[in-house]
Amino acid sequence: MPAAGTQNCTAARRWYELQQPAVALLPKLNAPKIVYPIIANECRFAIDRHGYLINDKLFVLPTDDAALVGLLNSRVANFYFSAVCAALEGSGDSYLEFRAQYVDPFPIPAGLADPQARETLSSLALKNEELHRRLETERTPHEQTAVARQIGVIDRQIDNLVYELFGLTQKDVRLVEDAA
Fold it and tell me: What residues make up the domain containing 120?
């Protein structure tokens, strides 16, 4: 006689085969997706185009929307998550818990529905991603500094576009930037 509560799964699996249902997630995990760490000191959303499998230290958004990555890595998003995420204290730094309960309700500005704004944000986010990859491969301090400056320029352009998409006033922008 099967153990209590196992009547529905005994034909295909035994009660101890708990890993089996996760196989159904493989198509989503192998597909391009946005990944982000559960604990970080700032927003670190990235697109995985290689189908890497993740462990319990990362979360997944089942989309490869570069505009969304740009939005989620902006100063506005960092300001939001600093206010809503559970905070953990480390040596000299505080870390945020980017659990789904905090990330899922992040507000998406209505302006992102505009195709031109979406394309611009997407393009900037992809350029930023490319520059970060390039920063890892640059060998000389001079080249690293030049790429880091380009990243700073792109970050600023993303932030300005996100401020515009949310309709922030100069006072709002100062509040966000002073908190950074």
Answer: 31-179
